[in-house]
Structures are given as C-alpha cells and as structure tokens.
Amino acid sequence: MEVSLNQHIEITPGVRSGKPRIAGTRITVADVAIMYLRMGQSLEEIAGKYQLSLASVHAAIAFYYDNRQEIDQRIAQAEAFVEAARLNTPSLLKEKLDAMRNYA
C-alpha cells in the first residue's frame, strides 16, 4: 500500500525502508536535509543536481522541519550503524598500504 502525503512527498513501504522521500524518486527527505543543512548545498543546487522540481525540494525541507526529531533520530541511527560496521570491519586497503610501508 502506498501512502501519499501530498504531491511532493510519499512514503511507500519497501522503498528506501519506508522513509519519506520525494515522490517518484528514491531521494529521501533525510538525504535532502543532509545535503542542505550539513553539506551547505542550496535547494536550487540540489534540485538541479538531481533533476527535481524546486517545489519538491522545498516540500522535503518543510517535511523535515515538521518531523525533525524523528528524521534526526533515523539519521543518527544510520550513522551509528555505519560507524560500528567501520570499526568492526578491517580495511583491506589499509592493511595492504601498511604492509607496503613496512617493506620500504
């Protein structure tokens, strides 16, 4: 079942884990919020880079601010998962580089 919140934002179970996203795309509201708030990209840049309407990008930011606590919590959980995986998985490239340095 697909739930459409408006013409710009939709939530579809099974697509991007049911995260709110720009309608017709796989770009989540959290993706837009990170690009805008953390990476400093303008909404116009984001729209142009991903061929989105400016209205849909503005809708994503509006949705983010309306649901900020929940979205920030999901972002933090994803970042914690990635960090744990990084710490628990040795880098094969780093091992090879270290081995090369030891031979020199």
What brief labels describe this structure?
61% helix, mainly alpha, 104 residues, 3-stranded antiparallel sheet, Arc Repressor Mutant, subunit A
Task: Describe what this molecule looks like in 3D.
- This protein has a single domain (3-103), classed as Orthogonal Bundle (Arc Repressor Mutant, subunit A), CATH 1.10.10.
- A hairpin with a 4-residue loop joins strand 1 (3-4) and strand 2.
- The chain is elongated, with a radius of gyration of 18 Å.
- The protein has five helices and three strands.
- It is mainly alpha-helical and 104 residues long.
- A three-stranded antiparallel beta sheet has the order 1-2-3.
Quick structural overview:
This protein has a single domain, classed as Winged helix-like DNA-binding domain superfamily/Winged helix DNA-binding domain (Arc Repressor Mutant, subunit A). 61% of the residues lie in helices and 7% in strands. The protein contains five helices and three strands, in the order E-E-E-H-H-H-H-H.
What topology does this entry show?
Layout lengths: L2 E2 L4 E3 L9 E2 L6 H10 L4 H7 L4 H13 L1 H21 L3 H12 L1
Q: Helicity, in percent?
A: 55-70%
CATH architecture: Orthogonal Bundle
Share in β-strands:
5-15%
In spatial order, strands of the major sheet run 1-2-3
The helix/strand class is mainly alpha
Number of strands: 3
Amino-to-carboxy terminus distance: 60 Å
Please tell me how large the radius of gyration is.
Answer: 18 Å
What CATH first level would be assigned?
Mainly Alpha
Structural shape: elongated
Could you say how many structural domains there are in total?
1
